[in-house]
Amino acid sequence: MRIETEKGHEIVGRIILEKIAEGVWPPGSRLPSVVDLSTQFGVGRSTIREALSALKATGWLDIRHGGGTFVKKELPSDSDPAGGVPLFQRAQSILELLEVRHILEAGTVAYAAERRTEEDLQQLSDILNSMELALRDQDTAAGERADAAFHAAIAQASRNSLLSQLMDSLSQRFSETIGQTRELWFYREQATAERLLEEHRSIYQAIAEGSPAEAVRRIREHLAKVESVLREEHPSS
Length: 237
Hints:
Elements: H1 8-22, H2 34-41, H3 45-57, E1 61-64, E2 68-71, H4 94-115, H5 118-137, H6 140-157, H7 161-178, H8 181-187, H9 190-208, H10 212-233
Antiparallel strand pairs: 1-2
């Protein structure tokens, strides 16, 4: 039996949420820089970036290229004043969500390959390192978080704030819908997990080389494999 222990980025993320709740960083306020947070928490910059990416993916933060990190003006716990249903909550099935993901991610990865900065590449590289550590430690929860952070970082590198917001919303809904199934098909055998890591590395390489067409091809191949396994796990979805 594995005894799960709280990771560094989880501790950082939890403390940031506590500070938001206490009003230290109220909605709309700007957080200190990654460098300052790294000094404040006594951890590496990659740990801070992973914590911020996770909080962004769950709707707590807004990371603006060259403009800093801000607490969302409307927090995830806030009720929808219009009483409407969030866009991706309307999806009829997991596979319907995945079809939307095919379209969105082809666009974000193409723009990322054209527009990525050295900082973007470093963030993606750090996340890949986290994925590798999760694989080595057989930590499925950390692997899932790193996977989500990788795709969110690609969207951020697209330099299109609307695409990034759509990806954040879609990723959150996709994770909620799959639940523990993700653990079953990503980590049911070592070879599967290793192949997944290699697929992400190949996507990163295409982005680093500035090749939009190749990046799109690789992410489509990756999502096609995801879809094939999902059809096995959810034949009626």
